Amino acid sequence: MTPINIEVIMPMLTSLEFGCSKCGILFNQLGLEKDYRSSCSDEYPEELRQEAAAILDALRGLSSLYKHRIRFKLIDAQSPLGLWKLIRHRIFKLPAFIVDNKHVCSGCDREKLEPFIDMGIHEASLELIADVGRKH
């Protein structure tokens, strides 16, 4: 069975710490030590950092529950793609989860999201059965 796609639209926390290895060499040459780079992420408000951690914990839990049946795609809400998804799906609350480009769930509530995932898996299995029936 092909895994269902879950697009997660959320504000991404960025810092200089996540630069590429070539940028790391440049930063070290400029005297920007790792302590300074990692402190950039500490400048975000505590509430935003806790929310991001809660979202990532929820994604880990869903990933361990559904294993190979789901695939996540993280989308920065402030990117052009993220803005397009927010407008197209009329999303007003973040984080938002788009299950197989059909079902939208806003907020970080696993109990609200899991029925949409189950519905997506069920629809995918019905499509698979229909495809097998057409081949015979």
Write the layout of secondary structure elements.
Elements: E1 4-10, H1 21-29, H2 34-42, H3 46-66, E2 70-76, H4 80-88, E3 96-99, E4 103-106, H5 110-135
Parallel strand pairs: 1-2
Antiparallel strand pairs: 1-3, 3-4
Summarize the structure.
This protein has 136 residues and is of the alpha+beta class.
| Cα-atom radius of gyration | 19 Å
Distance between the termini: 18 Å
Instruction: Tell me what portion of residues adopts beta-strand conformation.
Output: 15-25%
Order of helices and strands: EHHHEHEEH
Parts with pLDDT < 50 across at least 5 consecutive residues: none
* Spatial shape: elongated
For the record, the CATH class is Alpha Beta
- How many separate domains make up the residues? 1
Overall mean pLDDT stands at: 81
Please tell me about this protein's structure.
By secondary structure, the protein is an alpha+beta fold. The protein has one domain (4-13, 46-135): Glutaredoxin (3-Layer(aba) Sandwich). 54% of the residues lie in helices and 16% in strands. The chain contains five helices and four strands. It has helices spanning 21-29, 34-42, 46-66, 80-88, 110-135; strands spanning 4-10, 70-76, 96-99, 103-106. It has a four-stranded mixed beta sheet, with helices on both faces. It is elongated, with a radius of gyration of 19 Å.
